[in-house]
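Per-record layout

source: Clostridium tanneri
name: DUF3841 domain-containing protein
length: 201
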Amino acid sequence: MDTKDNKIRLYTSQSFEVVKLLKEQNVCYVKKEYIEKKYQEVSGIFMEAYNWYISRAQNIVRKPECAKYPYWAFTKAEYAGLYPGYYLLTMEIPIDEVIFFKVEDWNKVLNLKYLDISEEDEKNHKDMLAKQNISIESDIFTKPFYPYLKSKVKKSWDNLFKYNELIKSGVMQKSVLQASLWELRKEWIVDIKDATKDICI
């Protein structure tokens, strides 16, 4: 990871509207309607994961009152993506403002899956699903038959944060990590690119 002066370089892909807000207001926050617009008909499923994340993450890094949901960023630019109509922001952010985790771990949470701590733990969970004839793991959340399993899966999601302090203390170094931020600040931005050219902010 690229760190200096207790800051870290991160990358995020954002819409023109976000870039415009940063230019005008110096700071911007994610609103609930942005999440609902992004995921549309499946937003209800993803909101389960997002709401859980907020409940835990705000105890790790203080959430500003204006912030409703997090922004996602990455330690490698290619993971942030550069999509039509979006801009790639390169940022240098105080490391204490960031929560780190593995991309694949968050994808499990987002898809309402069990987040194991070992191969054996994963195998035991899959064996348990098979014994209960559960072929689609998200059924644990979308159907009313599995309150105990739902609690067990949500408890496993706490494993998402197991790398955060190791990374911040320098004990662990990972080349590709996802990160969350409660806000984006104009002062953090060192570069903005669209698909064809650099722009100034």
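summary: Residues 11 and 90 are 5 Å apart (CA to CA). The longest strand covers residues 7-15.
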